[in-house]
Description:
Elements (H helix, E strand, L loop, with lengths): L2 H22 L3 H25 L3 H25 L4 H23 L7 H23 L4 H27 L3 H25 L5 H20 L4
Helix pairs in contact: 1-2, 1-8, 2-3, 2-8, 3-4, 4-6, 5-6, 6-7, 7-8
Amino acid sequence: MSNSIIVLIIIGFILQALFIKTEHEKKYLAADILKGSASLMFVIIGYIAYTMVNNVFNKMFFYGLLFGMIGDILLNLRFVFEKQGQKIFLVGILAFLIGHIIYLVALIPQAGHVWIWHCTIAGALAAVCLLAYIFKTMDVKPAFKIFGVFYLGAVFIMTAIALGIAFFTPSKRAIIYAIGAVLFTASDVVLIFNTFSGVTKFSLRITNLTLYYIGQMMIACSLFF
Length: 225
């Protein structure tokens, strides 16, 4: 990667750290601006990769990153407009869902026709187990349950297929992307437990946001390999 990409990565992590600090101080508008700015860094990296190698795969991943940025802004915008917080949160989840579907569509042609079904089933089963635990132990509103089924299903299936590609047809791109996808999924799991378990911890918020941002950066940077 070029020096300019490394600079963008460093700027992104600085902005993400400032966002976490500012959100903790409950300066929600400033925090959302910082969060959007941090997300813009991995979108710019994805766009640079797309312009360098103008193919369908890079183009789709750029759009996936773009929807990730939109989701980022919306998820934190719910703190700015508290009365519409639930609706904004759900639209943010929808933006992430669209991004994951785009990733899936880009990944499927890279996968083997035999083992892709094994990965899909494994991802779906993992999502079902997690959802069953969440619905049994946490108080989740019906709207969140509906969105959760589709969102977690897409996330876990996408991650399982990414891991399958990295394992069966390994390459630097596939491995970096798979690690990024795993971190992204782990961040979602932490977010769910920190949001719906009834006990919100700042340490888990830091973990959630850090895993997520590293994951997105790795997904963006994988396009250069």
